[in-house]
Amino acid sequence: MQLYGLIGYPLSHSFSKKFFNEKFEREGLLDAHYELFPLENIADLPALLNRYPGLCGLNVTIPYKESVIPFLHDLHETARAIGAVNCIKVLENQRLVGYNTDVVGFEQSLPRQMVELWKVEEKTAFILGTGGASKAVAYVLKKLGISFKFVSRNAKNENEISYEDLNSPSARHHQASIIINATPQGTFPHIDEMPPVPPDFFKPGMFVYDLIYNPAETLLLREAKSRGCIVKNGLEMLELQAEAAWEVWKKNDP
Predict the structure, then answer these.
(1) Tens digit of pLDDT for each residue in 16-49?
(2) 100 near 75, Cβ under 8 Å?
(3) What share of the chain in percent tops pLDDT 70?
(4) Are residues 126 and 176 in contact, defined by beta-carbon separation less than 8 angstroms?
(5) What pLDDT, on the 0 to 100 scale, is given for residue 20?
(6) Per residue in 166-194, pLDDT tens?
(7) Is the pLDDT reported for residue 82 higher than 90?
(8) Do the beta carbons of residue 241 and residue 211 sit within 8 Å?
(9) Which of 17, 23, 65, 89 is catalytic?
(10) Which residue in 148, 160, 163 sits closest to 196, CA to CA?
(11) Arithmetic mean of pLDDT over the chain
(12) CATH node for 2-100
């Protein structure tokens, strides 16, 4: 049995098990199975590997995309550059190699025409959150030549601003054309929550991308849509990064 799975905590919101097991059945991969492995502490990862010696690959979700790195034996160059991992390939003797397929999912899910317009008009993107997912988003935006600022509750450097700062003349001057939520705020079951973006920061025509996929329409997206924004949830990104993870796992080379 080829066993794959997802580590993170909690995992009640995850669609990964259903996605992969349906994929395996559809493609006739009768020897493959996908499970959820909720870990209350990332330090439990070695015990998980010992308990399931047949593990071939793992996806990694919140809150372990960064803290999992010390448990890995090697990193793919993209994961090393980003400093976050969402995919692990398990080699012989339980040698673990970390990858980041969020970059594939995020980049391929962006609307091409809007990306070109943002670059021409030199717009600034605002990334909500500073965790592992936000680092993958930043990596893609930098690659595409789109400037960005991180938004957090407590800004720590010159490339971060606070949510309160979104009301400042400086933030308004940047004329953000895209807002990306890379935080878990609003994920099921906490569907009545959203990052504290000032409501009047949303403007008609803005592209608001929430990486959350459960629920399909978060409170953030509802608020943005009500103010004329173009909105997108994270389901397509989830599917694209999952397919990219499968490509990593099924290759014979590390």
Answers:
(1) 999 999 999 999 999 999 999 999 999 999 999 9
(2) no
(3) 96
(4) yes
(5) 97
(6) 877 666 555 567 999 999 999 999 999 99
(7) yes
(8) no
(9) 65
(10) 163
(11) 93
(12) 3.40.50.10860
For residue 111, the one-letter residue type is P
What dihedral angle (degrees, nearest 10) is formed by the CA atoms of 59, 62, 66, 69?
Answer: -40
Q: What is the mean pLDDT of residues 218-238?
A: 97
Helix (H) or strand (E) holding 4, with range, is: strand 2-8
Q: How many other C-beta atoms lie within 10 A of the C-beta of residue 248?
A: 17
Calculate the CA 146 to chain-centre distance: 18
Length of the chain as a residue count = 254
Helix (H, G, I), strand (E, B) or coil at 75: strand
Strand extents, DSSP E, 44-194? 55-60, 74-75, 87-90, 96-99, 124-128, 147-152, 160-162, 178-181
Query: Is 135 an active-site residue?
Result: no
At residue 146, the pLDDT reads 93
CATH placement of domain 104-234: 3.40.50.720
**Where are the chain's structural domains?**
2-100, 104-234
Task: Locate 152 and state its tokens.
Answer: 């957090």
